[in-house]
Structure formats: C-alpha cells, structure tokens
Amino acid sequence: MLPKIKAIIDHYQFDKIPIEGTLYKSTYVAQKTNGESPAGTAIIGMYCKEPYSVSTFHRLQHDEVWHFYKGDPFVLHLLHPNGVYQKVIMGTNILKEQKIQFVVPANVWQAGEITHNGTYALYGCTMAPGFTGSCFEGGTTSHLIKQYPNQKEVIERLTVAGHDTKMPDGYTQ
Length: 173
Prior knowledge:
By secondary structure, this protein is mostly beta strands. It is built from 3 helices and 11 strands; from the N terminus they run αβββββββββββαα. It has helices at 3-12, 141-147, 152-157; strands at residues 15-16, 23-29, 41-48, 55-60, 64-71, 74-79, 85-90, 101-104, 109-114, 120-127, 136-138. It has a 6-stranded antiparallel beta sheet with strand order 1-2-3-10-5-8, with helices on one face. A 5-stranded antiparallel beta sheet has the order 7-6-9-4-11.
C-alpha cells in the first residue's frame, strides 16, 4: 500500500461498507424525521487499487449526490431502468467533461471504481432522505446480466455471484 493512501485511511479511520465494499467514513447523520430515517446523511469515501476499494452494483430508493474531492478520476457505471448504460467520469477536468458533482437518480443500478491508470480517489456522497440499510439493494451477477447483457464485462467485474443483496439488520452509515 502506498504511504499516501495509508495516511488517508488512517486519518479518516475508514471502514468497509457491507456488501458493496467501499472504504468510507460517515460524516453526518441528521435527526430522524419519521422515527426511522434521518433527514440526510453524508459520507467520505475512497476508491483505490490497494487496498482494493470499489462499489459493487447496488441501487438506492433515493437520489444520491456524488462529490469529487481529490486524487485521480473515477468511474460511475450506471444501469438505468430503461436498459440504458451510462458511464460518468468524476474528476476535476471539467473541460474533458469530468464531473465534480453528479446525481445518481433513485432506483438506478450504480457501481464505481478508480480509473485504469488511477491510484486513488477521495469523494463524498450525500442523501436526503438519508441512507439506511433498508433503502439499499445489492445487484447479483446473473440478475443484472439478464437485464443488461451488453454490459456483461463490467457487471462480472463489479458484482459477486450469490452475493448478499440486503444490508445487515439495523445498518446505518
């Protein structure tokens, strides 16, 4: 592991999100609005090659706002309900159409990873209403390939066959 990556992990005391595998740290949880869900949540996350950190395919019941902070560009792979695949590059080179902020709509399958030549990317995600384990669904390889056969390669790389699809009971960020 590169010393710079280790220093960032140590500084934020990153943990791994169950099922999707991302290094993250919860930074904000608003008061609960209905006795169950917080009004909003925020995390800082990091994709890197070592230690391996990606988001495997999952979908959320609410929109999620992504923010690019530092490091190398990363890719969001989106599988829309209408069958369309979308590739979004998050980064600071806005003249090359990289995004510093992007909204993933509710119910869109999403996965993320560092670009091929990248070392690490530091980013944030915010949600309102806030994230709870009950708004999360993980994608399985066989299910997603049936729906999106043209994206087989990325689906096989960013899902785990037979993988759990629900967060542990009571999980929050």
